[in-house]
Amino acid sequence: MTGEQAAEDAVLAVEDVALSFAGVTALDGVSFRVEPGTVHAVIGPNGAGKTSTFNVICGVYAPDRGSVTLGGNRLTGLAPHRIARLGIGRAFQNIALSGRQTVLENILLGRHVLTRAGVIASGLRLPSARREAREGRAKAAEIAELVGMSRLLDRPAGLLSYGDKKRLELARALAMEPSVLLLDEPVAGMNDEETARTAGVIRDVRDRTGVSVLLIEHDMTLVMDVSDRVTVLDFGRLVADGAPDEVRRHPEVLRAYLGGALGETDAGTDAGTEAGTGAGTEAVANQDQHQEDK
Ligand SMILES: Nc1ncnc2c1ncn2[C@@H]1O[C@H](COP(=O)(O)OP(=O)(O)OP(=O)(O)O)[C@@H](O)[C@H]1O
């Protein structure tokens, strides 16, 4: 297989996905592609369909229409654990770590999806199980280094700072060796310093492992800072998809974030100008504030 083919293999394609709940449209014909080795953000106001998109990708929800493929393999219709095995790793917004277990043990828990030696082989301490355990620990240590937690390997997760807990959740998802890592609000609740550290980790994941990162995030400073591409949803529809700079100036994006308040007025037409960009940034900042108030 050539390098180019390998890269093509890891493309995550969401195609014409529609999803509704008892008459409420959550997603309405959403399509986008996550290119290998990129950071890709999905943004939009509350209720836009971001979490629903993640849930369709992971197999938590079956879409009414459309499909999700990874490297040409159809994920839609498969159970979540099979989708995880095929290369979709997800770190959750709500931290679900084992507090008494150490950082190393928590990362190893993330690997169980990959472990081949069964319970019996492990119990009998067969060579295959011992080798797998050794390899697992080495890999977990590598991942801990990547997320800046090498010195915390033996610390119980329950004693970590908030930021380290969130980065450990990310590390645990990475331990599954995914092609695409899904991050649900990775910097929610973090201060500026913690946010900057996490931004560095996200970039390192992309640059050092080649894993694509797909993230939902309300913190627009982070989104614009780390993303190679941004997909914007509003009321379940895709309203923009492009480089951060293009998306920030897109009239539909300004309209979505300002709740239609600007309608046909200045910012709608000025969207491509400096003034328009400023209005968008402000609107997005208001959205952040709204999140904090929730
Ligand atoms: N399990 C569900 N049952 C009923 N309606 C749902 C369910 N999940 C999502 N929805 C609806 O689907 C729409 C999209 O919701 P979704 O949670 O995907 O949005 P979101 O962009 O993630 O929002 P937020 O930023 O507030 O998390 C909303 O109208 C929401 O109320």
TrEMBL record:
InterPro entries: AAA+_ATPase, ABC_AA/LPS_Transport, ABC_transporter-like_ATP-bd, ABC_transporter-like_CS, BCA_ABC_TP_C, P-loop_NTPase. It holds the Pfam family ABC_tran. PROSITE patterns: ABC_TRANSPORTER_1 (PS00211), ABC_TRANSPORTER_2 (PS50893). GO terms for molecular function: ATP binding. It comes from the Bacteria. Residues 264-294 are annotated as: Disordered. PANTHER family: ABC TRANSPORTER ATP-BINDING PROTEIN, CONSERVED COMPONENT OF ABC TRANSPORTER FOR NATURAL AMINO ACIDS-RELATED. Residues 264-283 have a biased composition (Low complexity). The lineage of its organism: Bacteria, Bacillati, Actinomycetota, Actinomycetes, Streptosporangiales. Residues 12-260 form the ABC transporter domain. SUPFAM superfamilies: P-loop containing nucleoside triphosphate hydrolases (SSF52540). This is ABC transporter ATP-binding protein. Transmembrane segments: none annotated. Keywords: ATP-binding, Nucleotide-binding, Transport. The keyword Transferase does not apply.
